Amino acid sequence: MAHTEPSDKKTTATLTIDGNQVTVPVGATILEAAAELGIKIPTLCWLKKVSTTGACRICVVKVEGVERFMTACNTPVKDGISVTTSSPELEIARKKTLELMLVNHPLDCPICDAAGECDLQDTCYSLQVDKNKYTAELERLPIRYDWKLLESDPNRCILCEKCVKVCREVVGREAIEIVDRGDRTIIDTISGEPLDCDFCGNCINACPTGTLISKPFKFRGRPWTFEVTRGICSFCASGCEIEYHVGNGRVERVTSSDDGYNKGNLCVNGRFGYAAFNSSGRLTAPLVKDASGNQQKAGWDQALAAVAGKLREIVKAGGGAAVAGIGSPRVTNEESYLFQKFLRGAVGTNNIDSEARLGFFPAQVVQYRMLGYSGGTYPMDAIEKATAVVVIGSDLKAESPGFAYRVIQAATKNDARLVVASSRATSINKYANAFLQYRPGSEAFLVAGLNKALIAEGLQNTAFIEKNATGLDAATAALDAISFEQVTAATGISEAALREAARLACSGGRTAVIYGADVIRSADMATAVKRDRQPGAADRCRGRSRSRHLPAGREEQHPRHAGYGRLPRVPARLPYL
Length: 577
What we know:
By secondary structure, this protein is an alpha/beta fold. It has helices spanning 30-36, 88-102, 119-126, 162-171, 202-206, 268-272, 300-318, 333-347, 360-371, 396-399, 401-413, 443-456, 472-480, 484-491, 495-505, 517-520, 525-533; strands at 12-17, 20-25, 60-63, 70-71, 82-84, 150-152, 177-179, 186-188, 212-214, 227-232, 241-247, 250-255, 287-289, 295-297, 325-326, 352-353, 388-392, 417-422, 434-437, 511-515.
Protein backbone atom coordinates (compact mmCIF):
# COMPACT_ATOMS: atom_id res chain seq x y z
CA MET A 1 0.00 0.00 0.00
CA ALA A 2 2.24 2.73 -1.30
CA HIS A 3 -0.16 5.62 -1.01
CA THR A 4 -1.58 5.63 2.48
CA GLU A 5 -0.59 5.89 6.09
CA PRO A 6 0.63 2.64 7.69
CA SER A 7 -2.17 0.49 9.05
CA ASP A 8 -2.72 -2.90 10.59
CA LYS A 9 -2.68 -5.25 7.59
CA LYS A 10 -4.64 -7.86 9.55
CA THR A 11 -7.62 -5.53 9.57
CA THR A 12 -9.54 -5.71 6.31
CA ALA A 13 -12.40 -3.90 4.70
CA THR A 14 -14.98 -5.41 2.34
CA LEU A 15 -16.54 -3.14 -0.24
CA THR A 16 -18.48 -3.41 -3.47
CA ILE A 17 -17.09 -2.07 -6.73
CA ASP A 18 -19.32 -2.16 -9.82
CA GLY A 19 -21.41 -4.90 -8.20
CA ASN A 20 -18.41 -7.06 -7.23
CA GLN A 21 -17.30 -7.56 -3.64
CA VAL A 22 -13.61 -7.32 -2.73
CA THR A 23 -11.75 -7.50 0.59
CA VAL A 24 -8.58 -5.47 0.98
CA PRO A 25 -6.43 -4.25 3.89
CA VAL A 26 -7.66 -1.15 5.66
CA GLY A 27 -5.68 1.77 4.30
CA ALA A 28 -5.83 0.61 0.69
CA THR A 29 -7.28 3.07 -1.80
CA ILE A 30 -10.29 2.59 -4.05
CA LEU A 31 -7.90 2.51 -7.01
CA GLU A 32 -5.98 -0.39 -5.46
CA ALA A 33 -9.18 -2.22 -4.53
CA ALA A 34 -10.46 -1.88 -8.10
CA ALA A 35 -7.16 -3.25 -9.41
CA GLU A 36 -7.72 -6.37 -7.29
CA LEU A 37 -10.87 -6.99 -9.35
CA GLY A 38 -9.14 -6.23 -12.62
CA ILE A 39 -11.05 -2.95 -12.99
CA LYS A 40 -8.91 -0.23 -14.56
CA ILE A 41 -9.68 3.35 -13.57
CA PRO A 42 -8.01 5.97 -15.80
CA THR A 43 -5.47 8.26 -14.14
CA LEU A 44 -2.64 10.57 -15.17
CA CYS A 45 -1.04 11.61 -11.88
CA TRP A 46 -0.92 8.27 -10.06
CA LEU A 47 2.42 6.50 -9.73
CA LYS A 48 2.70 3.37 -7.62
CA LYS A 49 6.16 4.10 -6.19
CA VAL A 50 5.36 7.56 -4.81
CA SER A 51 2.69 9.15 -2.62
CA THR A 52 -0.59 10.16 -4.23
CA THR A 53 -1.45 13.66 -5.36
CA GLY A 54 -4.99 13.56 -6.72
CA ALA A 55 -4.02 16.35 -9.10
CA CYS A 56 -5.39 15.21 -12.45
CA ARG A 57 -8.95 14.33 -11.27
CA ILE A 58 -9.32 11.80 -14.07
CA CYS A 59 -9.80 8.89 -11.67
CA VAL A 60 -13.06 10.18 -10.17
CA VAL A 61 -15.58 7.56 -9.01
CA LYS A 62 -19.01 7.63 -7.40
CA VAL A 63 -19.29 6.46 -3.79
CA GLU A 64 -22.85 5.69 -2.76
CA GLY A 65 -24.10 8.22 -0.23
CA VAL A 66 -21.45 10.82 -1.08
CA GLU A 67 -22.72 13.82 -3.00
CA ARG A 68 -19.59 14.69 -4.94
CA PHE A 69 -17.32 12.46 -7.00
CA MET A 70 -14.22 11.11 -5.20
CA THR A 71 -10.71 10.59 -6.57
CA ALA A 72 -9.99 6.87 -6.46
CA CYS A 73 -6.21 7.24 -6.21
CA ASN A 74 -6.16 8.83 -2.75
CA THR A 75 -9.51 7.91 -1.20
CA PRO A 76 -9.08 5.08 1.34
CA VAL A 77 -11.60 2.27 1.37
CA LYS A 78 -14.19 1.84 4.09
CA ASP A 79 -15.99 -1.29 5.06
CA GLY A 80 -19.39 -1.64 3.40
CA ILE A 81 -19.15 1.18 0.86
CA SER A 82 -20.40 0.77 -2.68
CA VAL A 83 -18.39 2.29 -5.53
CA THR A 84 -19.24 2.88 -9.17
CA THR A 85 -16.28 3.36 -11.49
CA SER A 86 -18.06 3.74 -14.80
CA SER A 87 -21.27 5.60 -15.66
CA PRO A 88 -22.39 8.26 -18.18
CA GLU A 89 -21.98 10.96 -15.50
CA LEU A 90 -18.46 9.83 -14.67
CA GLU A 91 -17.48 9.68 -18.34
CA ILE A 92 -18.72 13.25 -18.87
CA ALA A 93 -16.83 14.47 -15.79
CA ARG A 94 -13.60 12.84 -16.95
CA LYS A 95 -13.99 14.20 -20.47
CA LYS A 96 -14.64 17.73 -19.23
CA THR A 97 -11.60 17.57 -16.96
CA LEU A 98 -9.44 16.38 -19.82
CA GLU A 99 -10.79 19.05 -22.17
CA LEU A 100 -9.95 21.76 -19.64
CA MET A 101 -6.49 20.24 -19.28
CA LEU A 102 -5.99 20.52 -23.03
CA VAL A 103 -6.93 24.22 -23.24
CA ASN A 104 -3.34 25.33 -22.75
CA HIS A 105 -1.66 22.20 -24.02
CA PRO A 106 0.15 22.73 -27.35
CA LEU A 107 -0.82 20.36 -30.14
CA ASP A 108 2.78 19.72 -31.16
CA CYS A 109 2.57 15.92 -31.15
CA PRO A 110 4.28 15.62 -34.57
CA ILE A 111 7.53 16.95 -33.10
CA CYS A 112 7.12 15.80 -29.49
CA ASP A 113 9.44 12.99 -28.40
CA ALA A 114 6.69 11.54 -26.20
CA ALA A 115 4.31 11.02 -29.13
CA GLY A 116 3.40 7.36 -29.33
CA GLU A 117 4.13 6.72 -25.66
CA CYS A 118 2.32 9.69 -24.12
CA ASP A 119 -0.12 8.94 -21.31
CA LEU A 120 -2.08 12.08 -22.17
CA GLN A 121 -2.52 10.89 -25.76
CA ASP A 122 -3.58 7.44 -24.58
CA THR A 123 -6.10 8.87 -22.11
CA CYS A 124 -7.59 11.16 -24.75
CA TYR A 125 -7.98 8.20 -27.07
CA SER A 126 -9.54 5.93 -24.43
CA LEU A 127 -11.98 8.63 -23.28
CA GLN A 128 -12.73 9.62 -26.90
CA VAL A 129 -11.78 13.26 -26.38
CA ASP A 130 -11.44 14.21 -30.06
CA LYS A 131 -12.53 17.85 -29.91
CA ASN A 132 -12.54 20.67 -27.42
CA LYS A 133 -15.17 23.37 -27.00
CA TYR A 134 -12.99 25.35 -24.59
CA THR A 135 -10.50 27.94 -25.81
CA ALA A 136 -8.14 30.48 -24.31
CA GLU A 137 -5.52 32.97 -25.40
CA LEU A 138 -2.31 31.03 -25.28
CA GLU A 139 0.77 32.59 -23.74
CA ARG A 140 3.77 30.39 -24.40
CA LEU A 141 6.15 29.89 -21.49
CA PRO A 142 9.91 29.75 -22.15
CA ILE A 143 11.39 26.29 -22.69
CA ARG A 144 14.36 25.39 -20.49
CA TYR A 145 17.11 24.61 -22.99
CA ASP A 146 19.83 25.37 -20.43
CA TRP A 147 19.50 22.15 -18.41
CA LYS A 148 22.13 19.46 -18.90
CA LEU A 149 20.87 16.18 -20.37
CA LEU A 150 17.24 17.26 -19.82
CA GLU A 151 14.93 19.69 -21.57
CA SER A 152 11.78 21.05 -19.97
CA ASP A 153 8.82 22.48 -21.90
CA PRO A 154 6.37 23.81 -19.28
CA ASN A 155 3.74 24.39 -21.98
CA ARG A 156 3.20 20.64 -22.19
CA CYS A 157 3.00 20.15 -18.42
CA ILE A 158 -0.27 18.99 -16.83
CA LEU A 159 1.07 19.55 -13.26
CA CYS A 160 0.70 15.92 -12.24
CA GLU A 161 3.68 16.33 -9.85
CA LYS A 162 5.02 12.85 -10.56
CA CYS A 163 8.47 14.21 -11.48
CA VAL A 164 8.61 16.28 -8.28
CA LYS A 165 7.66 13.33 -6.10
CA VAL A 166 10.10 10.93 -7.74
CA CYS A 167 12.90 13.46 -7.28
CA ARG A 168 11.96 14.00 -3.64
CA GLU A 169 10.78 10.59 -2.46
CA VAL A 170 12.93 8.19 -4.49
CA VAL A 171 16.09 10.02 -5.52
CA GLY A 172 16.19 12.30 -2.50
CA ARG A 173 17.34 15.44 -4.32
CA GLU A 174 14.34 17.84 -4.33
CA ALA A 175 15.91 19.55 -7.33
CA ILE A 176 12.59 20.56 -8.91
CA GLU A 177 9.41 21.86 -7.32
CA ILE A 178 6.10 23.51 -8.19
CA VAL A 179 6.75 27.23 -8.49
CA ASP A 180 4.41 30.21 -8.96
CA ARG A 181 0.62 30.00 -8.67
CA GLY A 182 -2.51 30.01 -10.81
CA ASP A 183 -2.04 29.87 -14.57
CA ARG A 184 1.67 30.68 -14.08
CA THR A 185 2.32 27.47 -12.16
CA ILE A 186 5.17 25.43 -13.60
CA ILE A 187 7.64 22.74 -12.57
CA ASP A 188 11.06 24.35 -12.26
CA THR A 189 14.00 24.87 -9.96
CA ILE A 190 13.17 26.99 -6.92
CA SER A 191 15.87 29.52 -7.75
CA GLY A 192 15.16 29.60 -11.48
CA GLU A 193 18.78 28.65 -12.09
CA PRO A 194 19.69 25.76 -14.41
CA LEU A 195 19.01 22.31 -13.03
CA ASP A 196 21.64 21.01 -10.60
CA CYS A 197 20.88 17.42 -9.59
CA ASP A 198 21.96 13.79 -9.97
CA PHE A 199 20.78 13.83 -13.63
CA CYS A 200 19.38 10.35 -13.17
CA GLY A 201 16.52 11.07 -15.56
CA ASN A 202 13.95 9.38 -13.33
CA CYS A 203 11.77 12.46 -13.74
CA ILE A 204 11.76 11.86 -17.51
CA ASN A 205 10.64 8.30 -16.93
CA ALA A 206 7.79 9.50 -14.68
CA CYS A 207 6.55 12.31 -16.94
CA PRO A 208 3.23 11.37 -18.62
CA THR A 209 3.71 13.93 -21.41
CA GLY A 210 6.62 15.39 -23.36
CA THR A 211 7.34 18.05 -20.75
CA LEU A 212 10.60 16.50 -19.62
CA ILE A 213 12.62 14.87 -22.36
CA SER A 214 16.12 13.50 -22.80
CA LYS A 215 18.36 15.86 -24.76
CA PRO A 216 20.54 13.09 -26.22
CA PHE A 217 17.40 11.32 -27.49
CA LYS A 218 15.65 14.39 -28.89
CA PHE A 219 14.62 13.90 -32.54
CA ARG A 220 16.52 10.59 -32.74
CA GLY A 221 13.37 8.82 -33.93
CA ARG A 222 9.85 7.78 -33.05
CA PRO A 223 9.50 5.31 -30.16
CA TRP A 224 7.91 2.60 -32.31
CA THR A 225 10.79 2.60 -34.81
CA PHE A 226 13.36 1.17 -32.39
CA GLU A 227 14.13 -2.41 -31.56
CA VAL A 228 13.82 -2.77 -27.78
CA THR A 229 15.99 -5.34 -25.98
CA ARG A 230 15.80 -6.02 -22.27
CA GLY A 231 19.04 -6.17 -20.29
CA ILE A 232 20.75 -5.67 -16.94
CA CYS A 233 22.66 -2.47 -16.24
CA SER A 234 26.30 -3.28 -15.51
CA PHE A 235 27.58 0.06 -14.25
CA CYS A 236 27.28 -0.99 -10.58
CA ALA A 237 26.09 -3.84 -8.37
CA SER A 238 22.44 -2.83 -8.13
CA GLY A 239 21.45 -5.05 -11.05
CA CYS A 240 18.80 -2.70 -12.45
CA GLU A 241 16.61 -3.95 -15.29
CA ILE A 242 16.88 -1.76 -18.38
CA GLU A 243 15.68 -1.62 -21.96
CA TYR A 244 18.00 -0.74 -24.85
CA HIS A 245 16.33 1.12 -27.73
CA VAL A 246 18.39 0.39 -30.85
CA GLY A 247 18.09 1.87 -34.31
CA ASN A 248 20.47 2.09 -37.27
CA GLY A 249 23.14 0.17 -35.41
CA ARG A 250 23.15 2.58 -32.44
CA VAL A 251 21.81 2.53 -28.92
CA GLU A 252 19.65 5.65 -28.95
CA ARG A 253 18.34 5.57 -25.39
CA VAL A 254 17.92 3.45 -22.27
CA THR A 255 14.66 3.17 -20.35
CA SER A 256 13.41 1.08 -17.47
CA SER A 257 9.92 -0.20 -16.69
CA ASP A 258 8.20 0.56 -13.40
CA ASP A 259 7.18 -3.10 -13.34
CA GLY A 260 10.81 -4.19 -13.12
CA TYR A 261 12.98 -5.09 -10.16
CA ASN A 262 14.24 -1.51 -9.76
CA LYS A 263 10.78 0.03 -10.30
CA GLY A 264 12.01 2.07 -13.26
CA ASN A 265 14.61 3.93 -11.21
CA LEU A 266 18.06 4.41 -12.72
CA CYS A 267 21.12 6.55 -12.03
CA VAL A 268 22.89 8.86 -14.47
CA ASN A 269 25.16 6.04 -15.65
CA GLY A 270 22.33 3.61 -16.20
CA ARG A 271 20.18 6.06 -18.15
CA PHE A 272 22.77 8.07 -20.06
CA GLY A 273 25.93 5.93 -19.94
CA TYR A 274 24.99 4.30 -23.24
CA ALA A 275 26.80 7.17 -24.98
CA ALA A 276 29.99 5.12 -24.55
CA PHE A 277 28.49 2.41 -26.77
CA ASN A 278 28.25 4.89 -29.65
CA SER A 279 31.75 6.33 -29.24
CA SER A 280 33.61 6.81 -32.52
CA GLY A 281 36.71 5.36 -30.86
CA ARG A 282 35.03 2.10 -29.94
CA LEU A 283 36.00 -1.08 -31.76
CA THR A 284 33.14 -2.37 -33.88
CA ALA A 285 34.86 -5.49 -35.23
CA PRO A 286 37.50 -7.94 -33.93
CA LEU A 287 41.13 -7.30 -34.89
CA VAL A 288 43.43 -10.18 -35.86
CA LYS A 289 47.13 -9.88 -36.67
CA ASP A 290 48.10 -10.76 -40.23
CA ALA A 291 51.32 -12.45 -41.35
CA SER A 292 53.16 -9.15 -41.02
CA GLY A 293 52.02 -8.63 -37.43
CA ASN A 294 49.61 -5.83 -38.24
CA GLN A 295 46.10 -5.86 -36.79
CA GLN A 296 43.36 -6.13 -39.37
CA LYS A 297 39.58 -6.20 -39.06
CA ALA A 298 38.13 -9.69 -39.16
CA GLY A 299 34.81 -11.49 -38.84
CA TRP A 300 33.80 -13.10 -35.57
CA ASP A 301 34.21 -16.63 -36.93
CA GLN A 302 37.77 -15.87 -38.02
CA ALA A 303 38.63 -14.12 -34.73
CA LEU A 304 37.22 -16.89 -32.54
CA ALA A 305 38.98 -19.54 -34.60
CA ALA A 306 42.29 -17.68 -34.14
CA VAL A 307 41.78 -17.42 -30.36
CA ALA A 308 40.75 -21.08 -30.05
CA GLY A 309 43.77 -22.19 -32.10
CA LYS A 310 46.17 -20.17 -29.96
CA LEU A 311 44.63 -21.52 -26.75
CA ARG A 312 45.06 -25.09 -27.98
CA GLU A 313 48.73 -24.44 -28.69
CA ILE A 314 49.32 -22.96 -25.22
CA VAL A 315 47.46 -25.76 -23.40
CA LYS A 316 49.24 -28.43 -25.43
CA ALA A 317 52.63 -26.93 -24.64
CA GLY A 318 52.18 -25.91 -21.00
CA GLY A 319 48.93 -27.40 -19.79
CA GLY A 320 45.80 -25.62 -18.65
CA ALA A 321 47.67 -23.87 -15.83
CA ALA A 322 49.53 -21.84 -18.46
CA VAL A 323 46.30 -19.96 -19.16
CA ALA A 324 44.71 -17.32 -16.93
CA GLY A 325 41.39 -15.52 -17.26
CA ILE A 326 40.52 -12.03 -16.03
CA GLY A 327 36.80 -11.41 -15.79
CA SER A 328 34.98 -8.13 -16.10
CA PRO A 329 32.81 -6.55 -13.39
CA ARG A 330 30.63 -5.13 -16.19
CA VAL A 331 28.92 -8.43 -17.01
CA THR A 332 26.04 -10.36 -15.49
CA ASN A 333 26.14 -13.29 -13.08
CA GLU A 334 25.29 -15.67 -15.89
CA GLU A 335 28.12 -14.41 -18.09
CA SER A 336 30.60 -14.61 -15.21
CA TYR A 337 29.46 -18.15 -14.47
CA LEU A 338 29.93 -19.23 -18.10
CA PHE A 339 33.35 -17.54 -18.22
CA GLN A 340 34.70 -19.45 -15.22
CA LYS A 341 33.04 -22.68 -16.38
CA PHE A 342 34.75 -22.39 -19.76
CA LEU A 343 38.16 -21.81 -18.18
CA ARG A 344 37.79 -24.57 -15.59
CA GLY A 345 35.97 -27.12 -17.73
CA ALA A 346 37.23 -26.55 -21.27
CA VAL A 347 40.68 -25.00 -20.75
CA GLY A 348 41.48 -26.75 -17.46
CA THR A 349 42.69 -23.84 -15.35
CA ASN A 350 41.70 -22.34 -12.02
CA ASN A 351 43.67 -19.16 -12.71
CA ILE A 352 40.66 -16.84 -12.68
CA ASP A 353 40.64 -13.32 -11.30
CA SER A 354 39.15 -9.84 -11.64
CA GLU A 355 39.49 -6.37 -10.17
CA ALA A 356 37.33 -7.64 -7.30
CA ARG A 357 40.63 -8.95 -5.91
CA LEU A 358 41.39 -5.36 -4.87
CA GLY A 359 39.00 -5.50 -1.94
CA PHE A 360 35.65 -7.04 -2.56
CA PHE A 361 36.77 -10.63 -2.98
CA PRO A 362 38.71 -10.79 0.31
CA ALA A 363 35.62 -9.47 2.11
CA GLN A 364 33.54 -12.19 0.49
CA VAL A 365 36.05 -14.86 1.52
CA VAL A 366 35.81 -13.74 5.15
CA GLN A 367 32.01 -13.88 5.02
CA TYR A 368 32.05 -17.25 3.27
CA ARG A 369 34.43 -18.87 5.73
CA MET A 370 32.52 -17.55 8.73
CA LEU A 371 28.95 -17.94 7.55
CA GLY A 372 28.85 -20.22 4.52
CA TYR A 373 27.70 -17.56 2.06
CA SER A 374 29.26 -14.50 0.48
CA GLY A 375 26.30 -12.36 -0.48
CA GLY A 376 23.15 -11.13 1.17
CA THR A 377 20.25 -13.07 2.57
CA TYR A 378 17.26 -11.21 1.14
CA PRO A 379 16.47 -9.40 -2.13
CA MET A 380 17.65 -5.82 -2.13
CA ASP A 381 14.14 -4.40 -2.11
CA ALA A 382 13.69 -5.84 1.39
CA ILE A 383 15.56 -2.76 2.61
CA GLU A 384 12.44 -0.68 1.99
CA LYS A 385 10.60 -2.69 4.64
CA ALA A 386 13.31 -2.33 7.28
CA THR A 387 12.51 -0.52 10.51
CA ALA A 388 16.17 0.44 10.98
CA VAL A 389 19.06 0.77 8.53
CA VAL A 390 22.76 0.96 9.35
CA VAL A 391 25.12 2.11 6.58
CA ILE A 392 28.84 1.75 7.32
CA GLY A 393 31.69 3.03 5.16
CA SER A 394 29.73 3.69 2.01
CA ASP A 395 28.64 6.57 -0.18
CA LEU A 396 25.65 4.63 -1.49
CA LYS A 397 24.71 7.06 -4.25
CA ALA A 398 28.22 6.75 -5.70
CA GLU A 399 28.65 2.99 -5.21
CA SER A 400 25.21 1.52 -5.89
CA PRO A 401 22.39 4.03 -6.36
CA GLY A 402 19.83 1.23 -6.27
CA PHE A 403 20.72 0.64 -2.63
CA ALA A 404 20.55 4.37 -1.89
CA TYR A 405 17.08 4.70 -3.42
CA ARG A 406 15.82 1.87 -1.22
CA VAL A 407 17.35 3.33 1.92
CA ILE A 408 15.67 6.66 1.14
CA GLN A 409 12.36 4.87 0.66
CA ALA A 410 12.80 3.08 4.00
CA ALA A 411 13.49 6.36 5.77
CA THR A 412 10.76 8.43 4.12
CA LYS A 413 7.93 5.94 3.61
CA ASN A 414 8.54 3.34 6.31
CA ASP A 415 9.88 5.82 8.89
CA ALA A 416 12.94 3.60 9.39
CA ARG A 417 15.66 4.82 11.75
CA LEU A 418 18.85 5.47 9.76
CA VAL A 419 22.38 5.33 11.17
CA VAL A 420 25.15 6.44 8.81
CA ALA A 421 28.77 5.81 9.77
CA SER A 422 31.32 7.19 7.35
CA SER A 423 34.57 9.12 7.22
CA ARG A 424 32.83 11.82 5.18
CA ALA A 425 29.37 13.23 4.69
CA THR A 426 27.23 11.62 1.98
CA SER A 427 24.04 12.52 0.17
CA ILE A 428 21.85 10.34 2.42
CA ASN A 429 23.00 12.12 5.57
CA LYS A 430 19.95 14.37 5.52
CA TYR A 431 17.79 11.31 6.23
CA ALA A 432 20.03 10.02 9.03
CA ASN A 433 18.90 9.95 12.66
CA ALA A 434 22.56 9.60 13.62
CA PHE A 435 25.77 10.33 11.71
CA LEU A 436 29.04 8.89 13.01
CA GLN A 437 31.94 10.55 11.19
CA TYR A 438 34.92 8.41 12.09
CA ARG A 439 38.57 8.82 11.22
CA PRO A 440 39.54 7.17 7.92
CA GLY A 441 40.93 3.68 8.44
CA SER A 442 39.27 3.12 11.82
CA GLU A 443 36.35 1.08 10.47
CA ALA A 444 37.22 -2.01 12.57
CA PHE A 445 37.26 0.01 15.79
CA LEU A 446 34.01 1.74 14.79
CA VAL A 447 32.16 -1.53 14.32
CA ALA A 448 33.66 -2.96 17.51
CA GLY A 449 32.46 0.15 19.34
CA LEU A 450 28.93 -0.23 17.98
CA ASN A 451 28.80 -3.84 19.12
CA LYS A 452 30.22 -2.94 22.51
CA ALA A 453 27.54 -0.25 22.82
CA LEU A 454 24.89 -2.78 21.81
CA ILE A 455 25.88 -5.07 24.67
CA ALA A 456 26.39 -2.21 27.12
CA GLU A 457 22.84 -1.04 26.42
CA GLY A 458 21.53 -4.54 27.08
CA LEU A 459 20.21 -4.82 23.54
CA GLN A 460 21.50 -8.37 23.16
CA ASN A 461 18.42 -9.42 25.13
CA THR A 462 16.00 -7.72 22.75
CA ALA A 463 14.43 -9.02 19.56
CA PHE A 464 17.50 -7.71 17.73
CA ILE A 465 19.43 -10.81 18.84
CA GLU A 466 17.75 -14.07 19.71
CA LYS A 467 18.08 -14.92 23.38
CA ASN A 468 19.31 -18.44 22.62
CA ALA A 469 22.08 -17.28 20.30
CA THR A 470 25.37 -19.02 20.97
CA GLY A 471 28.63 -17.23 21.59
CA LEU A 472 27.28 -14.18 23.40
CA ASP A 473 29.36 -14.78 26.51
CA ALA A 474 32.51 -15.23 24.45
CA ALA A 475 31.67 -12.14 22.47
CA THR A 476 31.17 -10.06 25.58
CA ALA A 477 34.49 -11.24 26.95
CA ALA A 478 36.23 -10.40 23.68
CA LEU A 479 34.78 -6.89 23.64
CA ASP A 480 35.69 -6.34 27.28
CA ALA A 481 39.30 -6.25 26.13
CA ILE A 482 38.51 -3.05 24.24
CA SER A 483 37.49 0.07 26.13
CA PHE A 484 35.25 2.84 24.88
CA GLU A 485 38.20 5.17 25.45
CA GLN A 486 40.27 3.16 22.97
CA VAL A 487 37.43 3.21 20.45
CA THR A 488 37.01 6.97 20.84
CA ALA A 489 40.75 7.56 20.50
CA ALA A 490 40.84 5.56 17.27
CA THR A 491 37.60 6.75 15.67
CA GLY A 492 36.87 10.15 17.22
CA ILE A 493 33.34 8.94 18.10
CA SER A 494 32.18 9.35 21.69
CA GLU A 495 30.70 6.57 23.81
CA ALA A 496 27.41 8.47 24.04
CA ALA A 497 27.15 8.69 20.24
CA LEU A 498 27.88 4.96 19.88
CA ARG A 499 25.23 4.05 22.46
CA GLU A 500 22.63 6.26 20.77
CA ALA A 501 23.45 4.71 17.37
CA ALA A 502 23.12 1.21 18.85
CA ARG A 503 19.69 2.06 20.28
CA LEU A 504 18.55 3.42 16.93
CA ALA A 505 19.87 0.33 15.12
CA CYS A 506 17.79 -1.89 17.38
CA SER A 507 14.55 0.05 17.01
CA GLY A 508 11.81 -2.12 15.58
CA GLY A 509 12.16 -5.69 14.40
CA ARG A 510 13.82 -5.48 10.99
CA THR A 511 17.33 -4.08 10.73
CA ALA A 512 19.29 -3.80 7.50
CA VAL A 513 23.08 -3.46 7.66
CA ILE A 514 24.93 -2.28 4.59
CA TYR A 515 28.69 -1.86 4.38
CA GLY A 516 30.60 -0.52 1.43
CA ALA A 517 33.93 0.24 -0.19
CA ASP A 518 35.48 2.06 2.78
CA VAL A 519 35.13 -1.13 4.83
CA ILE A 520 35.96 -3.52 2.01
CA ARG A 521 39.14 -1.68 1.06
CA SER A 522 40.23 -0.54 4.49
CA ALA A 523 43.67 -1.49 5.81
CA ASP A 524 42.08 -3.72 8.45
CA MET A 525 39.39 -5.10 6.18
CA ALA A 526 39.34 -8.63 7.61
CA THR A 527 38.73 -7.45 11.16
CA ALA A 528 36.14 -4.90 10.08
CA VAL A 529 34.18 -7.47 8.06
CA LYS A 530 34.34 -10.06 10.84
CA ARG A 531 33.01 -7.60 13.36
CA ASP A 532 30.42 -6.31 10.92
CA ARG A 533 29.13 -9.75 10.01
CA GLN A 534 28.97 -11.70 13.29
CA PRO A 535 26.67 -12.92 14.76
CA GLY A 536 23.68 -11.66 12.84
CA ALA A 537 25.25 -12.20 9.50
CA ALA A 538 22.46 -14.36 8.17
CA ASP A 539 19.88 -11.67 8.68
CA ARG A 540 21.28 -8.44 7.35
CA CYS A 541 22.00 -6.81 4.04
CA ARG A 542 25.07 -5.10 2.74
CA GLY A 543 26.10 -3.06 -0.24
CA ARG A 544 28.32 -4.21 -3.12
CA SER A 545 26.76 -7.49 -4.08
CA ARG A 546 28.29 -7.97 -7.49
CA SER A 547 31.36 -10.21 -7.07
CA ARG A 548 30.85 -13.63 -8.57
CA HIS A 549 34.29 -14.98 -7.59
CA LEU A 550 33.40 -17.60 -5.01
CA PRO A 551 35.34 -20.63 -3.81
CA ALA A 552 35.26 -23.43 -6.38
CA GLY A 553 32.05 -25.41 -6.25
CA ARG A 554 30.07 -22.64 -4.56
CA GLU A 555 28.29 -20.52 -7.17
CA GLU A 556 26.11 -17.58 -6.16
CA GLN A 557 22.43 -18.39 -6.64
CA HIS A 558 20.91 -14.94 -6.75
CA PRO A 559 22.10 -11.88 -8.69
CA ARG A 560 21.01 -9.34 -6.11
CA HIS A 561 21.47 -9.55 -2.39
CA ALA A 562 20.35 -7.66 0.69
CA GLY A 563 18.28 -8.44 3.73
CA TYR A 564 17.05 -7.89 7.22
CA GLY A 565 15.67 -9.86 10.09
CA ARG A 566 16.14 -11.12 13.62
CA LEU A 567 19.63 -12.12 14.68
CA PRO A 568 21.16 -14.61 14.41
CA ARG A 569 20.01 -17.68 12.52
CA VAL A 570 23.50 -19.18 12.34
CA PRO A 571 25.81 -20.06 15.25
CA ALA A 572 27.30 -16.81 16.50
CA ARG A 573 30.87 -16.36 17.59
CA LEU A 574 30.56 -12.69 18.42
CA PRO A 575 27.42 -10.57 18.85
CA TYR A 576 28.50 -7.93 16.36
CA LEU A 577 26.19 -5.80 14.28
